[in-house]
Amino acid sequence: MKKFGYVAAIMMLAVLTIAPGAYAKKDKGASNNPPVPSDVYAKYDVNTNGVLDLSEKDVIKADYAKDPSNPLLKPFDINNDGKLSDDEISMIPATKTADAPKEKKHKKNK
Ligand SMILES: [Ca+2]
Ligand SMILES: [Ca+2]
Q: Which of 1, 27, 30, 59 is the most buried (most CB within 10 A)?
């Protein structure tokens, strides 16, 4: 049973080591997860600065003009004119924290 005590001590140590991180998680909440770029940003924010730059917007506009049924971009063509205006592009969310429950793809470390 001495062995058990040893293992228990190590586990206690592990818990104590991990605990501060757990508390920090509670305090900061969502900020612990890096923001997930929205599908549009994942594809078009080429330099991943979290902003659609002019050249990146141009690519979006060109892509949408080529394929107005593009399921990625169509939802943002608010007035359904087959083009994405700057206003419409500005409505595209940069991240998809809103639908965070879809985190199943994320494999957690054991
Ligand atoms: Ca960018
Ligand atoms: Ca439009």
A: 59
